[in-house]
Structure formats: structure tokens, C-alpha cells
Amino acid sequence: MAILQGDKLPDAVLRRMGDNGPEEITIETLTSGRKIVLFGLPGAFTPTCSSAHVPSFIRTKDAFFEKGIEEIICVAVNDVHIMRQWGDVTGATAAGLSMWADPASEFTTAIGMNFDVEALGFYGRSSRYAMIVENGVVTQLNQETKRGVCDISGGETLLESLG
């Protein structure tokens, strides 16, 4: 069952490649006592993710911070090397977005956002969504209902929910 607005995020471990090697962090550590944006997408270097979803949060980053968001976190079911390279190529890392890998789909599956498309080699991939999380609780959840589009889960739409 997919996570709902008002639910507490389940704890899971996310990973990224840091300057000194692999790093791990728990969802609880990322969210405890903080107000963050967390968005998930099907995969690094995929068309809509690269041309629409990540750029929407680069464009809106400053406006989110002005409204009290402390961090914008992108999660994808990819490995740490891919996420690091993708963050560099898209400009997400330079813009200050945090690019975290969920390589075994642990978090994605725990929140019920996983899907498979065998023909594309997508297994346990993430549906496209964006959420505002306050102290580990989902206060706003925007999930796309159609594949290949980024309307509901884009940065501009999520930003509107903050008023």
C-alpha cells in the first residue's frame, strides 16, 4: 500500500558516493526535526527525469528555502555512482540538491511506490512523486498518475502547496 499524506515515513537506508567514498544515511536521520522536500523518480538519465523533474526542483530551490524547507532530496533506484554522475550532469549537485540512491528499492518498496517495466529493464523502480516531510511525517504528497509526465510532482506544483 502506498504511503499517504499524514503517514510517518518508514525507516530505510539511502546511499550516495561522497568525496571520501560511499556514505549511508537513514530516512529517520534525514527527516528527524526537519522540514524537507523528498522527491522520487524512475531513474537517473531517463528522459522525463532529466528534462523535467530534476530541473523543476533546481528552478524552485530558493523559493522552497524561503518557505522554510531545509533540504531538497532526490531518491532513485540506481547505484551511488550513477546518482553522483547524474547529479553532476544535470547541475542538481551544484544547485544544492541532495542525490541519494535507493539501490535495492528498500525505501521505495517500503512506501509502496515501486513498479516494474520488464521491457525497459525497470525492476523495483520508483513511481514519480514529490512530498513535503515534517519531522518524518508526510504533510503533502503529489504523485503522478501517468507515466512520462511531470506535472503533479514537479517543483512548481509542490511549491504552490506551501502557499
Tags for this entry?
31% helix; 9 strands; alpha/beta; 5-stranded mixed beta sheet; two-stranded antiparallel ribbon; 163 residues
Cα distance spanning the termini? 29 Å
**What's the total count of β strands?**
9
Query: Quick check: average pLDDT?
Result: 96
Radius of gyration: 14 Å
Per DSSP, the total helix count is: 6
Query: Numbering strands along the chain, what is their spatial order in the largest sheet?
Result: 5-4-3-8-9
Give the biggest sheet: 5 strands, mixed
| Low-pLDDT segments | none
User: Which percent band covers the strand fraction?
Assistant: 25-35%
State the share of residues found in helices, binned by percent. 25-40%
Q: How would you sum up the global shape?
A: globular
List the helices and strands and how they pair.
Elements (H helix, E strand, L loop, with lengths): L12 E6 L2 E6 H5 L3 E7 L5 H20 L4 E6 L3 H11 L1 H4 L2 E4 L4 H5 L3 E4 L4 E5 L2 E6 L2 E7 L11 H6 L3
Parallel strand pairs: 3-4, 4-5
Antiparallel strand pairs: 1-2, 3-8, 6-7, 8-9
Task: Kindly describe this structure.
The chain is of the alpha/beta class and 163 residues long. Helices cover 31% and strands 31% of the residues.
Give a short overview.
This protein is an alpha/beta fold. 31% of the residues lie in helices and 31% in strands.
